Every structure is written in structure tokens, then in C-alpha cells.
Automatic annotation (TrEMBL):
<keyword id="KW-0804">Transcription</keyword>
<keyword id="KW-0238">DNA-binding</keyword>
<protein>
    <submittedName>
        <fullName>LysR family transcriptional regulator</fullName>
    </submittedName>
</protein>
<dbReference type="GO" id="GO:0003700">
    <property type="term" value="F:DNA-binding transcription factor activity"/>
</dbReference>
<dbReference type="InterPro" id="IPR036388">
    <property type="entry name" value="WH-like_DNA-bd_sf"/>
</dbReference>
<dbReference type="GO" id="GO:0003677">
    <property type="term" value="F:DNA binding"/>
</dbReference>
<keyword id="KW-0805">Transcription regulation</keyword>
<dbReference type="InterPro" id="IPR000847">
    <property type="entry name" value="LysR_HTH_N"/>
</dbReference>
<comment type="similarity">
    <text>Belongs to the LysR transcriptional regulatory family.</text>
</comment>
<dbReference type="GO" id="GO:0005829">
    <property type="term" value="C:cytosol"/>
</dbReference>
<dbReference type="InterPro" id="IPR036390">
    <property type="entry name" value="WH_DNA-bd_sf"/>
</dbReference>
<dbReference type="Pfam" id="PF00126">
    <property type="entry name" value="HTH_1"/>
</dbReference>
<dbReference type="Pfam" id="PF03466">
    <property type="entry name" value="LysR_substrate"/>
</dbReference>
<dbReference type="InterPro" id="IPR005119">
    <property type="entry name" value="LysR_subst-bd"/>
</dbReference>
<feature type="domain" description="HTH lysR-type">
    <location>
        <begin position="1"/>
        <end position="57"/>
    </location>
</feature>
<dbReference type="InterPro" id="IPR050950">
    <property type="entry name" value="HTH-type_LysR_regulators"/>
</dbReference>
Length: 322
């Protein structure tokens, strides 16, 4: 059974004539006849009394409401898809790591709301691993995360490098390490650490770095908000290794101190991740472009494209591992 067969069936039922139905469907009468014959063969029942006027048989009467419903559903579906591709998307869902939500994302959100006032933005602050999972599950449209080559190395994912930044040390202003302009990793390993919870890319990055140094990470507390990190390091001897962006406000807090590390400098890479099919949707493609312009690279300068898209070419970047 094909959709055009049902459309031919409805046209005949409405006009009472194969000839008029053919004109309505913009096909020949022989085509209409073949479609109905094929439909009757598939269903195993005659649908019309062939006389001076095509009247529905009992089987045709039973099929009629179902055929109307099927064709209406198809029309609704095609209309919704057309509206989606024209930019009429009711909402756009974004998952981003906490530091991005706090510092980088607000100007992007403001500009997007001005450009697409009819599209509701939904932003969730999540760890990198969780954000990538909800993206793959189709629960969000875009994830802005710390790059994890094991989770982003997937052919359906589009991964854009936004920026790379160093990891610095946050401590209380009267902490013993605050006397140094730069802090060596040997000194850092002597103090208890406050770290992000499991599922946050920062915890994995710090753990792996300590393993490379051949020392144990003395993690005494796991947190998931930047305010909590600042509050806890004020209280005692513990320190926290956090990305430079997340420490912007701490420089203006007299109770806190921020110091860079000595070599080797530990960096994190922030990336935007989405899927090729989502970039066919104008609001999502526009949001990506705004992120590139305001936070990271400008996509208009990138020659790579999303090659498996059916729509006009969209810039694409490749994942670059830390």
C-alpha cells in the first residue's frame, strides 16, 4: 500500500468519478485506475462499484475514515518538517559545563533570543560526560563540553574546537602556597584536593595528570558547582585545580588567591558538539555560529563541511584531543 493509492481512493470517493479524480490528482485516468486496482489487490476487497458513478462498496466505506486519517497525518508530518527546516523550531536544548554556563554562554543566549524570539531556549548545566550522553540520546541539540576523544570519536558527531585554556590553582588568600607566583606540581601534590564529581571532565583530566606524574591524588571532597569550590577552599588547607575561565571572579575576591602552575602546563580543551542532521535546522545552525563568533572560532573561516547532510553545506570542524 502506498500513499498515492490512498490519495487516489479519497479523490474518487470525493468526486464520484475516476476521470475527475485523475484531474484532481494531476495524473491520467489510467494511472488512477491502476492505483485503485493495485490497492484492491493489496487489500483483497473491491472498493468501488463501477457504474456511471463510482460509489463505495462496503469495504470502501470501512476504509474511508482510515484513509482520511492516514493522509491527514502525512500532511501534518510534512508540514511540521517543512516548518522545522524553515526555522520554526519551538525549542532549542543546550547542555553545557558549569563554567561555560556561568561565564561564556550568557551573551550567546541573549543574541540568540533576539534573532529567534519564537524559539524557547532550554539550558542545562551538566558535566561533560553526562552532557554528551544526553546529546547522543536526543535529549539536547547541542553540548558545550570538555573534549573527551573517547566519547566524541563518533561519525555522527560534529565536534568544533572552541578554545584551550590552562588549569590554575585556587586557594584561600592565606594559604601557604599563596606566597608563590607560580606553583610547582611537587608542591601541589602535598595538599588535599577538592575535585569535581565523577562524570565531569575536569576530574578525569586531573586524575590522569596525577597518574602521569606518578603520584596519588588526595581528593578529600567532590563538588559540582563553582560557588561551592570557592566556599570550601576559603575554609582551610585544601586547594582546587580549575580552568582559568572558572576562576575569573576569584581574582576580585580578597579571601581567595589564584596562581598558575609551573611546567608542564595542564590545559583543557572546550568543544561544541552536535550532530550533522541537527545542523540542517536553521536555529541550531545559527546557535552554533553564534557560539563560534562569541566564544570560539568563526565557522565562516573553516573550510570543512558536514558531508552527509542533504541541505546546503555547513562548516564542520574535527575533534582535536587534549
Amino acid at each position: 500500500m502506498r500513499l498515492e493509492q490512498l490519495q487516489a481512493f479519497l479523490a474518487i470517493a470525493e468526486t464520484g468519478s475516476f476521470q475527475q479524480a485523475a484531474r484532481k490528482c494531476n495524473v491520467t485516468q489510467s494511472t488512477i485506475s491502476r492505483q485503485i486496482q493495485s490497492l484492491e489487490s493489496d487489500l483483497g476487497v473491491s472498493l468501488f462499484h463501477r457504474s456511471t458513478q463510482a460509489k463505495l462498496t462496503l469495504g470502501g466505506e470501512r476504509l474511508l475514515p482510515h484513509a482520511k486519517k492516514i493522509c491527514q497525518e502525512w500532511q501534518n508530518a510534512t508540514q511540521e518538517l517543512a516548518e522545522l527546516l524553515s526555522g520554526k523550531q519551538p525549542e532549542l536544548c543546550v547542555a553545557a559545563i558549569p563554567s561555560i554556563c556561568a561565564y561564556n554562554l550568557p551573551p550567546v543566549l541573549q543574541k540568540f533570543c533576539q534573532d529567534y524570539p519564537a524559539t524557547q531556549l532550554r539550558v542545562t548545566s551538566l558535566g561533560s560526560d553526562r552532557a554528551l550522553k544526553v546529546l547522543k540520546d536526543g535529549l539536547v541539540d547541542v553540548a558545550i563540553v570538555m573534549n573527551n576523544r573517547f566519547l566524541t570519536a563518533s561519525p555522527e558527531l560534529i565536534v568544533d574546537e572552541l578554545y584551550t585554556e590552562p588549569i590554575e590553582v585556587l586557594m584561600a588568600a592565606d594559604h601557604p602556597l599563596a606566597q608563590y607566583q607560580e606553583i610547582s606540581w611537587l608542591e601541589i601534590t602535598n595538599y588535599p584536593q577538592i575535585v569535581f564529581k565523577v562524570g565531569y571532565g575536569m576530574q578525569r583530566l586531573i586524575q590522569e595528570h596525577f597518574q602521569r606524574l606518578g603520584v596519588n591524588l588526595n581528593a578529600v571532597l567532590e563538588l559540582n558547582t563553582l560557588d561551592a569550590f570557592r566556599g570550601m577552599v576559603r575554609q582551610g588547607n585544601a586547594i582546587a585545580l580549575l580552568p582559568k575561565t572558572a576562576l575569573s571572579d576569584a581574582h576580585y575576591d580578597p579571601t581567595l588567591a589564584v596562581r598558575p602552575t609551573t611546567e608542564p602546563i595542564l590545559n583543557r580543551q572546550v568543544v561544541l558538539v552536535t550532530t550533522c542532521d541537527r545542523l540542517q535546522i536553521p536555529p541550531i545552525a545559527h546557535f552554533r555560529s553564534l557560539v563560534h563568533k562569541i566564544i570560539g572560532v568563526d565557522s565562516t573561516t573553516n573550510p570543512n563541511v558536514c558531508t552527509n547532510s542533504a541541505t546546503p553545506k555547513t562548516p564542520r570542524s574535527h575533534a582535536i584531543a587534549i
